[in-house]
Amino acid sequence: MTDTSLVDRRVLITQADAFMGPALCEAFAARGAVVIASTESLVDPAAPQAIVEASGQVDVLVANLAIPAPTTPALDVDEDEWRAVFAALVDPLPRLCRAVLPQMVARGGGKIVVMGSASALRGMKRASTYSAARGAQLAYVQALGVEMAPQRVQVNAIAQNFVDNPTYFPPEVQANPRFQERLQREVPLGRLVAAGEDAAFCAYLASAAADCFVGQVFPMCGGWVPR
């Protein structure tokens, strides 16, 4: 029988109060994990190392990174927007991984799951900055995943869209008839993926049952991709 238990596994979840953070904390705690819910900003280059050090042993890192997505037309994107988005979504990821990987390697294994976006897998108008940053996350996961596999550290990502979460699909957005029409038109599932469904898959990837996955990017978007 495959082992999906997370009992006593120490799980660090970043930005635990945003994006998928609340659902992830609930899902991991329900499976017996010791959840370290960090809500600190990761923009300061020194912050990821400090957060990892303060967490002690980290068996699983869930890199949950999010900001409100800019909707600037590509020709109007300025340097400030580009750098701010990459500073929030891209730069913290290798810093977190560099901070946590040495202890995982020393213990003979570990898990890193990145909560990414399917916006990197399908073109979207007025999303060039955000999509580029999310794409950089996924490319990093693929490269790091194959590099760390021999060390028994599995690095994977969930590329999501149309998943119920307070950052991108708050109640006021979901209540908008135009959004509901778009949901029916663009998403084969015909509804948002429930936060619990997404978080349960993340918990699975963090378990021993998912040891076979290396540098994989898993779309979680109700069929929005591939198209």
Features:
6-stranded parallel sheet; 227 residues; 8 helices; globular; alpha/beta
Query: Kindly, what is the distance between the CA atoms of the first and last residues, rounded to a whole number of angstroms?
Result: 35 Å
| SSE run | EHEHEHHEHEHHHE
Strand order of the largest sheet: 2-1-3-4-5-6
Average pLDDT, to the nearest integer?
96
Q: How many β-strand runs?
A: 6
- Output the structural class: alpha/beta
The number of helical elements comes to: 8
- Helicity, as a percent range: 40-55%
Biggest sheet: strands, sense, closure? 6 strands, parallel
Relative strand content:
5-15%
Coarse morphology: globular
Q: Identify low-pLDDT runs.
A: none
Tell me the radius of gyration. Answer: 17 Å
Write the layout of secondary structure elements.
Layout: E1 10-13, H1 21-30, E2 34-37, H2 47-55, E3 60-64, H3 79-89, H4 92-107, E4 110-117, H5 128-148, E5 153-160, H6 171-174, H7 177-186, H8 195-205, E6 217-220
Parallel strand pairs: 1-2, 1-3, 3-4, 4-5, 5-6
Helix pairs in contact: 1-8, 2-4, 3-5
